[in-house]
Automatic annotation (TrEMBL):
GO terms for biological process: protein import into nucleus; RNA export from nucleus. GO terms for cellular component: nuclear pore inner ring. One of its GO terms (molecular function) is structural constituent of nuclear pore. This is Nucleoporin 188. Signal peptide: none annotated.
């Protein structure tokens, strides 16, 4: 499915705080994702069985991430693919713990 830009990255670009310095680069990114910025929170969709199946079939996502993403989807009432994307963005941008702590967290939680 390719790289997914997080909402935070979009706002960072919009605020001029990203690594992008050339106006043409900034313009290209904002033009590419303007609809997403415009829609804001309405970008996020409710869960669906087809989205859950796509997550389960996705070979590019590790099983523990899929499982946690699906649990997040149930908890938030959010589309399964978007839940996995949010989890991946969180782990990439905001998670400050160790890999070992993450592993314990991911396998230590009981199913809801």
């Amino acid at each position: 499915s390719g790289y997914v830009v997080s909402s935070r990255e979009l706002w960072t670009i919009l605020l001029g705080r990203s690594a992008l310095r050339e106006l043409s680069q900034i313009e290209a990114e904002l033009n590419k994702y303007w609809q997403r910025l415009l829609e804001g929170l309405s970008y996020y969709k409710p869960p669906s069985s087809s989205s859950a199946e796509r997550v389960k079939a996705n070979k590019d996502v590790a099983s523990p991430l899929k499982e946690l993403g699906l649990r997040i989807s149930k908890f938030l009432g959010l589309d399964e693919e978007q839940s996995v994307q949010l989890l991946q963005c969180y782990l990439q941008e905001d998670y400050r713990g160790t890999r070992d702590a993450l592993k314990v967290c991911m396998r230590g939680r009981a199913r809801p």
